[in-house]
Amino acid sequence: MGTTTPPRTLAEALRARGDESLAGLLRARPDLLNPVPNDITQLATRAGTRASVVRALEHLDRFALQTAEALAVAPDPAPYGILLSLLTGDGLDDGEQRDDVGAAVTAALPGALATLREQALVWGEDERLRLVRTARELLAPSPQHPSPTGLGPTVAEATAGMSPGRLQEILTTAGLHATHDPVSAVAALSALFTDRTRMAELLDTAPVEALSVLDRLVWGPPYGEVTPNPTPPVKWLRDRGLLLPVSTRTVVLPREAALHLRAGRAHRVPEPAPPVVTAAAERDPQAVDRAAAGQAFTALSTVEELLKLWNGGGPAILRAGGLSVRELKRTATALDVTEPIAAFWVELAYAAGLLATDGESDERYAPTPASDEWLDLSAQHRWTHLATAWLPATRVPGLVGGQDAKGRALSALGPELDRSAAPDVRRRVLALFAELPPGTAPDPETLLRRLRWERPLRGSSPSGEGTDLRSRLALWTLNEAELLGITGRGALSSQARALLEEGEETAAAFLAPLLPEPLDHVLLQADLTAVAPGPLERPLAETLSVLADVESKGGATVYRFTPGSVRRALDAGQAAADLHAFLAAHSRTPVPQPLSYLIDDVARRHGHLRIGAASAYVRCDDEAVLNEILADRRSTGLRLRRLAPTVLASQADPGSLLEALREMGYAPAAESAEGDVLITRAGARRTPPRTPPTPVPEGPPVPDDTLLGAAVRAIRAGDTAATVIRKDPAEGGPSSTTSSGSLPRTTSAETLATVQAAAMTGTAVWIGYVNAEGAASQRVIAPVRVEGGFVTAYDHTADEVRTFALHRITGVAELAEEG
User: Fold this and answer.
1) Alpha helices in 352-421 (DSSP H)
2) Where is 356: in which H helix or E strand?
3) According to the model, what pLDDT value does residue 730 have?
4) Residue 792 zone, left/alpha/beta (φ > 0; ψ -120 to 50; rest)
5) If pLDDT is split at 50, 70 and 90, which confidence band does 293 have?
6) Is 178 exposed, middle or buried (0-12, 13-18, 19+ CB in 10 A)?
7) Burial of residue 311 (number of CB atoms within 10 Å: 0-12, 13-18, 19+)
8) What are phi and psi of 450, to 5 degrees?
9) Alpha carbon distances (Å) from 371 to 386, 452, 459
10) What does the mean pLDDT of the chain come to?
11) Of the ranges 8-17, 626-635, 685-694, 737-746, which one carries the lowest mean pLDDT score?
């Protein structure tokens, strides 16, 4: 095909493209690469399939989509001028504002058309623009699928089944010359509706009520219901063809008439430029960074508290997967947050690989070994780990509490929370934040309008959440970014900008100076409390959390010492002397006497009773204590009996016996079979090594440049093999019954002779080949060596030297000489 010959098909248009342009198509529509097409014809066929075209349309912005919609209602093929007029109008209703819109459309249309061409949705020269047939079918109007433009079918389409007599009546009533030729009648009626002067004269004679009917239909939907005896205004319109019958009760406003009423515009409001994201507030960038850092620190504290809460084994897993409503409420209460926010923290820890299922028979959630590594990181690196886990996550905590398509409740950590569009929305929202000056908080409504303009067809979900899921994801992103410290006071922080643009290390360096330094001390008070005026170093915080209970959180954390908390520390292996030394070393105030007395009193009684397995037993050197237990009515359920003066046996298991005696006010200690006191370490349960959940991809991954280059070479080579001119057997070539697109067929002797001759002369031949898996293909090869039943040749299709088994070659044909 010469360079001046216009393409006749999409395949010819693609074949005329350069390698870079083909690579751009495959980059924009990666689904076309799975698998790599054999040739250009197969690529064009695949690009026209319904599923692929739908995906491509979903990635168009508002104006590119409006351009495609205009082409869907334009003649096929359509000149560039017709397309432009459908988007700008015919100029007869122009005002100053319409002039501005027309200028913007004129400037933006070449770019939109280039996008449609790049994605192989439009092909052809400017004077013969063609929208691919599948896209036209998806966007063109029909009663079942109204056009996005609100336009109905053409006069020719609407009158396809109309009798010639009825057409003559319409022509006569409309003041046209009647004709018995239906084609001429349709052409005459179409010409009337597209003639501005004659159409205006016809409408001048219309009743006011008829014009009101047209006003209701002109911008769509163009269909209306009528009764068997229509009103005079409807009858006036129907008699003149301004309303054409679709069925016995439905009429439609033909496209040509609607375009006249619209002054030639396919859309009421063309949107050639994206909406501007406006500022809701201007804030001090440093104040934004400090607020974001404060929230980042709160995020770290909350996740650490969650890990500690589930440290000894978290809640059980529902049969269908996920957390029960009761467990989510319990977690929210423990974290002192609402349930939706608790769901966010749980899902974030899960996405970061810090929580997982333990895989036991009574499966529960628990921290992973990676959580210990995370806790050992610096605060700034713990934050970057969470932020980088949140950005690509496809799980959507905002859905928790809703219902799926079958009406089943969606639970936190459940299996139905993945939405593949979530990462793209998050990154796009943050990118729009980053385009604003530092410290600027965007107006959420303008941000949503911008997102809708960029992907007007995106957002629908197979789970039945409606067509605006993308907007909901954006709103959730705004809330989650603030919770995580990505934003502060509604504006993007400097550390988040660094994370998006330069990576984790730079973001950590920005955040580090803004986080409070961990403290190595607390303030002990006489009311058996300790005040931590800031974050504590991890060893101090861990020991203190065992020795005391957290009473309140905030800028300062208040811990309270109780007999139960002191006993918990003693159970963990600490002695009273160790606790006294710990408090003295880490308190900036003297250790209060009541606290010292509390520790000594609990320690004196701790381990006085010993619990072991009989089912269980209690032993104590003080017989009076055992007598007291036997006399206590609360011990009845334990079914105790005396085995010896210092030993009681119980039918309860050791754990239940231990807890029951503690509830009765005693401080027993568990012991081993050897009689040694068992030390219980707080929170030692971990899952086996787990990998974080893999995000659910939205579609095929975007191929890299290496893969694109190899794919383009393979398609070009396959196209050469499919379109190459083969020598006719009548011209002296080997006997062959092949035609374009089928494998050549020759005898084994002919195949061997032709391949040997090609190896001697260095020429290329066309072969059919069946591999070991039985897959047949056609290739263009240049044989180098033929021996031992194999042909070593340069394979133009694969762009590499390969070895072919002679018995797998179905046939061979020489290539015709060029010229």
Assistant:
1) 369-375, 379-390
2) strand 355-357
3) 45
4) beta
5) very high
6) middle
7) middle
8) -65, -45
9) 12, 39, 34
10) 86
11) 737-746
- Predicted TM-score (pTM) of the model is 0.76
> For residue 739, what are the contacts with CB-CB under 8 A and spacing of at least 6?
none
Which of 508, 513, 514, 559 lies closest to 533 in space, CA to CA? 559
Residue whose structure tokens are 């947050």: 337
Lowest-confidence segment of 151-165, 298-312, 587-601, 670-684 by average pLDDT:
670-684
In this predicted structure, what is the pLDDT of residue 186? Answer: 87
Question: CB 470: neighbour CB atoms within 10 A?
Answer: 24
Tell me how far CA of residue 629 lies from CA of 495, 606, 609, 646, 662, in angstroms.
61, 16, 11, 12, 12
Residue with tokens 């995106």: 458
Contact (Cβ atoms closer than 8 angstroms) between residue 473 and residue 417: no
Query: 680 falls in which pLDDT band (50, 70, 90)?
Result: low
Residue 569: φ, ψ to 5°: -70, -40
Please give the average per-residue pLDDT across 417-421, as a whole number.
91
**By the 8 A CB rule, do 39 and 719 touch?**
yes
Of 24, 50, 51, 76, which is closest to residue 68 (Cα–Cα)?
Answer: 76
Q: What is the CA radius of gyration of the chain?
A: 39
87-121, pLDDT tens digit by residue? Answer: 998 766 555 456 677 889 999 999 999 999 999 99
SS3 letters across 72-116:
HHCCCCECHHHHHHHHHCCCCCCCHHHHHHHHHHHHHHHHHHHHH
Neighbours of 667 (CB within 10 A): 21
Two structure tokens written together for 726: 């083969």
Helices (H), 401-560: 422-435, 444-454, 469-484, 494-501, 504-511, 538-547
pLDDT exceeds 70 at position 545: yes
Concatenate the DSSP letters of all residues of 656-667 into one string.
Answer: HHHHHHHHTT--
Sign of CA dihedral 455, 135, 3, 705: positive
